[in-house]
Amino acid sequence: MAYTVPKLKEFSPAALDKAAERLLTALEQESAAVNTEADWKTFRDRWMGRKNGVLTQVNELWLKAAPKGAKRDVGQRVNLARARVTETVEDGKPKRIVGYADAGAANIGEVTVGKGLSAKVKLGSAPAVVEHAVDITLPGNRHPLGAEHPVIKAMNEILSVFRNLGYSIAEGPIIETDYYNFEALNFPPNHPARDTQDTLFLANQDSKPLRDRLLLRTHTSPVQIRTMEKMKPPLRIVVPGKVHRNDPPDASHSPMFHQIEGLAVDTNITLGDLKGTLDHAMKALFGSSVKTSFRPSFFPFTEPSAELLVSCFICGGRGKRNLEPCRPCKQTGWIEILGCGMVDPNVFEFVKSNGYDPRKVSGFAFGMGVDRLAILKYGVDDIQLFFQGDVRFLAQFA
Ligand code: PHE
User: Does 234 sit behind a cis peptide bond, omega within 30 degrees of 0 on the bond before it?
Assistant: First the structure.
C-alpha cells in the first residue's frame, strides 16, 4: 500500500524517529521502482510537488502541528527527511546516452541508465536530440601529454652518466645553515662568498651564533658534509638540486638555478681519477670527439682546484662557424663547464670521527651548473625561458 504522511499523535523523540523511519523506508522502496523517465517524474512530483508532495505534507502535518516544546525535535527530523528526499530524487534521474548502436543499419540505440547500473536499450528510429543527452559520437576531452622540462632532462642525463659509473644520488635541504654551506667547507669567516651580496640569508637571525644562521644554499656542496656525516667511506655520490644567489635576473643569470655536485672518497683517490672520470663524463654528455682541459682555480674546500673546459662542441673547437664568430665559446674554442678539485684535508677534519681521517682517505669533488649546460646543449639563448612556464617554449623539448 502506498505510503501516506500520517498525522502525529505523539511528539516524543522516539515517536518522531519511528515516523521518520517509515517515511525514509517508503522513499527507498519507491525510488527502487523508478525505471523510466516517466516513472521518475511521477516519483519526483509525489515527493517534492509543491502542492501536495510528501515534503509539503510533512511540513503541514508534522512541523506546523507540533506543540511549541517539540518544534526543535520535529524540525531536525524534517530537515533530515528533506535532504534525503532531495538527494534521492536527484540521484534517481535516469541519464540518457544517445548513440549509434549500428550506424550502417541506421539503428539508433537509446540507452537509459538509471540508478545503479541498470540499463535499458530501446532500438528504434533516430530520436530528436534529447535535452541533457550525452552524445558519445563527440570527440573526447583532450589531455595533452606534458614533456620533461629541459633543465630536468639535462639533469637526468648527467645523473645517469654517473649512475653508470656506480655513483648513488644524495640530496639535502635548500634552506641550509651557515655551518654546512660555509664553515665546514673551509670558508674563512670573512670570505667574500659569505657576503650578503651573493648569499640570501633568512631575516631576523642576528641573535643566533653565525654557524646556526639559516640561508638559501648557494651551492650543492653542503651535501658533501651532510652525506659524510651519515655514511662511512668509500663514497661515490652525485647531488642534484636547486641553489640560490642574490643575482639580478638577466639572459645568463637567475637568482635560482640548479647544480649537480659530485664527490668520491676512498683510500687512494688521485687527481688522475678526477681527470679520467670527468673526461669520460664529458665525452658521454657532449660526444666522444670532445677534448677536456683543466685550468687552475680556487675553491676553499678543494686543493688543488681546477676549472674544467671542454672543446666547443658547437664549432668543433675552431672558434668560428662558417666564418661567423662562435658565440657560445666566445671564439676561444673552449667552454667552461664546472669547478672541481681534490677534497681539502681541512674538510675531512669536520667529519673525521665518521672514518674520514685525512691521513687515510682522499677524494675529489666537482660541481656544475645544470641550467648553463642545458642552455649550451639545447641552444637556448636566455635562462629566463626555463622559468617562465611558457608551454610554447617547453613543448619544443617534447
Ligand atoms: N660549489 C662550487 C660552486 O658552486 C663548485 C665546486 C664544487 C667546486 C665542488 C669544486 C668542487 O661554484
Answer: yes
